[in-house]
Amino acid sequence: MKKVIIELIQNFYLAIIIFFLILFKYITFTNFIFGYLFYCVFVYLTTKTYLYCVKTPFNTGILENCPSIKTPNFKQYFLCPFTFAQFILLNISSKQNVSNHKQLFFEIEKVDDEGTTLFWASNESSQINHNNPVLFVMPGITGKINDPYVKNIIGEGLIKDFDVVVFQMRTLSPEMKMPKNGYVDFCVDINNSLKKVRNKNKNKIFAIGYSYGANLLTTYLGSKNLETNYISGGISVSNPFDMFICQRFGEDTIYESLIVNFERKNYLAAVNNMNKYETDKNRIINIAHLLENYYIKHFDGEFFVKILGYRNADDYYKGLSSARYVKNINKPFLVISSKDDPICPYRGIPIDDICENENIIFILTDKGAHSCYVENDKNLGFTPKQWMFKPAFEFLEFLRNNKK
Questions:
Q1: What are phi and psi of 50, to 5 degrees?
Q2: What is the separation of C-alpha 71 from the centre of its chain, rounded to a whole number of angstroms?
Q3: Chain mean position to CA 303
Q4: pLDDT tens sequence for the chain (404 residues)
Q5: 148-159 vs 83-100: helix axis angle to the nearest 10?
Q6: Which of 15, 135, 271, 293 gives 298 a disulfide partner, CB atoms 3.0 to 4.6 angstroms apart?
Q7: H helices of 148-294, where?
Q8: Which of 92, 267, 256 is nearest to 170 (CA)?
């Protein structure tokens, strides 16, 4: 009963506030502010964070050395408790963090002649020497090195003395080409990238994936990494484990239109270049079709279906979903997801498989939106920051110092 009441207040707070204002027979700015502050306090006090993991000696060691994982406690930014506000705050906090970090420089390394690229990061005080453990960053579906949230994780990684390298999918490169034989396989691209990394750096490789990148990382860890052992541990943030469910719940929302617009903007150069070299008419992308469609399913059906070799969009969503690989992961893996994620809904998380895998530690938050997790600074100040870096880098520090 208590849970039902909380959900009713969270979902219908505006109607409740208006009802009480009408009840008092007048609406004033002061009444509205008091009602809004009441809701902020209510959400702040009722927001919870959950921890799931199998009790093993290794996991016990992690919990004892990682306080932000042992007792995770994410509280969303106090004055903006709404899901969409998290995206705005993320952009603000990321730009603040980027400005606080030193200027970033990148050494570009081509993995192949088809567009897959690595960006080795450094700054004025942290040169690329390949003597530190590697942080292999896998951004979201349109993520590039200039995106604020990508720069944010790069800056944090350099501060923690990691050799940071960003994996960029061929779909984001203006030099994109299809493989000479067959279709694109992102896991093969990731594996070839890790070979390049291993050739330069013999230390441990840790990977962190955001959104689509987290989905690819999970698939890789549950398949190819079982053979190669390139990655010693990983972190998944806001993973769309079941892309079929994500697409269904995301239809006809503002987030769908935003994703489609980002994909158009970031993929157009790659599509133009790919079409120039493609001889198979069935694999040529119809650019007019990409530009005219509002629905992400239509976009994916024209683009990803053709380059990955699936039958249709539904086949692509089911085929590329990482949920079925979770049970195979045999490396330490930290999963961070949010119940209010509007892009990767909670219903798509394979909770049973996650909780039964002794190599996975799962942190689930009530709030946090999609890869955001923006909180107040100390004493409820007005400088937002990302909470997820606390458990993420405590986890990485434990793994880098663990001799096993």
A1: -120, 145
A2: 22
A3: 21
A4: 555 565 556 556 666 666 666 666 566 667 677 778 888 888 888 899 999 999 999 999 999 999 999 999 999 888 888 888 888 888 877 766 655 556 888 999 999 999 999 999 998 777 777 889 999 999 999 888 988 889 889 989 999 999 999 999 999 999 999 988 789 999 999 999 999 999 999 999 999 999 999 999 999 999 999 999 999 999 999 999 999 999 998 888 888 888 888 888 888 888 888 888 887 787 788 888 888 767 889 989 999 999 999 999 999 999 999 999 999 999 999 999 999 999 999 999 999 999 999 999 999 999 999 998 988 876 655 667 889 999 999 999 999 988 66
A5: 50
A6: 293
A7: 148-159, 186-200, 212-221, 225-228, 243-250, 254-277, 287-292
A8: 267
Strand-by-strand arrangement of the 360-365 sheet: 49-53, 360-365, 333-338, 231-237, 205-210, 134-138, 163-168, 117-122, 105-110
Q: Token pair for residue 76?
A: 């969303």
Tokens describing residue 348: 């798509």
Beta strand ranges found along 270-339 (DSSP E): 333-338
Q: What type of residue is 57?
A: P
Three-state SS at 374: strand
DSSP-derived secondary structure letter, 344: S
Per the listing, tokens 């009840």 go with: 23
CA distance 179 to 170: 11
Taking the C-alpha atoms of residue 158 and residue 257, their distance in angstroms, rounded to an integer, is 34
Pairing of strands 117-122, 163-168: antiparallel
Length of the chain in terms of residues written? 404
**Burial category of 311 from C-beta neighbours within 10 Å (exposed 0-12, middle 13-18, buried 19 and up):** exposed
Q: Tell me the one-letter amino acid at 386.
A: Q
